[in-house]
What does this fold into?
Amino acid sequence: MENEPENNNQSKGGEARRDKLSPEVRSDIARKAAAARWNLPTATHGGELNIAGWAMSCYNLADGRRLISQRGFMDIIDMRGRKDIGQRIAGMLEDSALKNARINKLVLDTQNPVKFMTPNSIMAFGYEDRLIIDFCRALLDQRRLKVLPAYALQYADAAEKFISALAGVGIAALIDAATGFEKIRDKKALEALLDRYLRHEFSAWAKRFPDEFYEQIFRLKGWSWKGMKVNRPSCVGSYTNDLVYSRLEIGILEELQVRNPWLPEKKSREGYHHTLLTEDFGVPALAQLLHTEITIMRGFGPGKWTNFKEFLDLTLPKKDKSVQLLMGFYEDDFLKP
It folds into this structure.
């Protein structure tokens, strides 16, 4: 009895801490607790996938798998009723004419759907995206070989419509779009791309920009060129970002500005952008881009900066910008000496 007040106080303290949590945090805690209790994989994202009239629940699991709900799978092949779907599918695919390792695995997989926890902590069953496609193709193979049971022809017809509706669009990408996972997927892909092009530390300086690149800028702007030993206007740095780094690869310029920030006390950046480019991907890509742009620059007459920029935006658009229609460009301005 002496411990009762202390236990009550602890309980009240726990409730108070719980009440301070946001609904999202409480839901996440409950989901993780339920998944741990049942030892099930958890879905981090869920949504509704709509394809040519089909609407089905789909999920991204924390381990990277993508699932269509069991109910959604049944809708795809137009299967009705409450009888165990695994047994019904096994009956369709066990014709002796198609007995092989592929069909045996397909039968086994459909009889063992993935049991998982949805984002709102509900236990559910689903099938992986690849299994959906493999199953539809197996039905079509059976129909083509004329060994599909008559009662299952309607399932094959539905499978054919579904495969046609995909029209070459990856089901994985469709699920990611429906669940919202594509934002994270794209972020990870961008991080991987940046790691290929950019270093995390400055390398030793090496000449990467040909003198002619800057000479062509001066010529197109109508400025007098006095060589590389004369300090260039500060705007040339902005032109370099615009002409080169923003067109090198998506996200490169933004990441360079983070890794090589402007230092107000020095009135300059910590180092040169190009010294952060990787030797295997970044430097070769820079060299190729500069060669292409210098060739284009040579095709415009002196003082034709605006016309050059309009043409460049059309032929080599910025990686994070949509292509702009070429306005105000006339053929007489191109290849003019």
Remarks:
- The chain has two domains: 18-180, 195-333.
- Residues 195-333 form one domain.
- Residues 4-20 form the longest helix (17 residues).
